[in-house]
Amino acid sequence: MKDSKPCLYPPLASRLYSVWFRHMRVYTRHIFSNGLPPFLEPLLFLAGIGLGLGKYITQSMEGLTYIEFLGTGLLVTTAMFTASFECTFGTFIRLEFEKVYDGMLAAPLTANNLIIGEIIWAGTKGLFFSFAVLCILTVFGIVSLPRSLLAPCVGLLTGLMFSTLALLITSFVRTINHFNFYFTGIISPMFFFSGVVFPVSNLPGFIRPVAEILPLTHSVRLVRAVCTGLYPPRLLLDVLYIVAFIFIVGFFAVRRLKKRLVF
Amino acid sequence: MSPTVIKVENISKCFGKVRAVHELSFEVHAGSCFGFLGPNGAGKTTMLKMLYGKCTRDKNSDGLIDVFGYDPAREELAIKYLSGVVPQENNLDEELNVIGNLMVYSRFYALDRVSARSRIDYLLGFMDLSDKLTAKIKELSGGMQRRLVIARALMNNPQLLILDKLRQLKKQGTTILLTTHYMEEAFALCDMVLIMNKGQAVMRGSPSELLERKVEKYVLELTGSHSLESIADGSVLNAVRVDRTQETLRLYSDDADRLKRLAGQIQGAHYYLRQANLEDVFLKATGRQLNERQ
Known about the structure:
Chain A is mainly alpha-helical. Chain A has helices at 12-29, 31-35, 37-51, 66-97, 100-104, 111-139, 151-172, 179-193, 208-213, 215-228, 235-261. In chain B, the strands form three sheets. In chain B, strands 5-6-7-3-8-9 form a six-stranded mixed β-sheet, sandwiched between helices. Chain B is elongated and about 75 Å long.
């Protein structure tokens, strides 16, 4: 009964690529409406800050002018937002309403391949969104090249981190409206208290350890280091945190979400 | 006889307290068309999903699933690579157009662009969809979407075709597994039928064999409420099996003349004398009709 010849299903890398390819094709089908906002958003943000609020903030933050401080932070918050949306609403819709995954799982892909492909795609989006912000920051002379060219890589790591967290949340969610709690309760506070809009050191002492737990804090530190070219040794801890976060949260996200796909 | 390509032994599956499949066993031979016939909720779809790893089987059973020599619990990829699945619901990617759907799907099998494109052209022609190449999924009729799902399932030249509640299909050389609750379909297409009810196999065999062995040759169907007591000559009811389901009274016998005489004796009845079919086999075995909801 056993087939004499070995079965030549595609290798792991090819399977992950095919999942990534599906997402890329869907995304690039509407290249204008999907590709333009990542450039417009930082533009609006910087215009609002630069023309308005920025005038009142004259104090330097961690040795940067306010527009530099905030602008570099945006390099990673944009990756956080895109990966979070992709892997909450996006994943949920594919899972529950469109049944896209059911179709994909009839092809030679495992549920794990599917979920990990999703994470890699969200990371790619983080990279692209971060790159878009970098373009705007460069045009306005807020960051200097070539050292800032590494910033999209931090966007990639940020995207990977937040996609694993988002998928873990998605694995618990039964109705799509529950994601509102995640965005209002976790993602928005992270934007304000992770050293993006003001330094973590300005937080009251008892809250500072909380900020250290938040994943975005570490992304922000890493991206500022990249943009300023100053790499303090403690940065290694941030890198370690990010890598550990991706693998640990990713592990649980895959394990839990798999049960929603194969049961 | 052609070799066995699918072997299932003693497989069960529970969803919470619901027993979807209960200690099911069957074998499918290469090149044959094997049908699962049963009402909605009989466990047909669940059984199919367990074959290609979309559902996991219950671990506590000492069961075995072997598809082309592979166990879906460990080697689902090999099984999926060799099989094409047409699911019950059309799960096309609505964010992509027709060609986009098929190109993305061809990547899952790692087909290169050129051979994927020629395969797709062939499949779309085969399914009569050539002029819909760049159409959006929502622009396709239900029937066209169905054909596109079949084209997608045929992408990698499957050795096994798994069809869940499919109404139309062309027979070819591949092994086919299908589920249905339409007995005409099972009768017309299948070499082998496994009749399921409440997760269990009720009976199995080729359609003609089932008709020959498991049910009388003829049925007299009477609609409306009739009483058999009005029949003057009671002896005519000997060797006639009576089955009353809802509004319909069915009288079964191998002797058509006897049924004709019976019909004549029932006052003012609307009757219908016909040959027995798989529906009657199912009714006899389970006391239920195929299109009943569970």
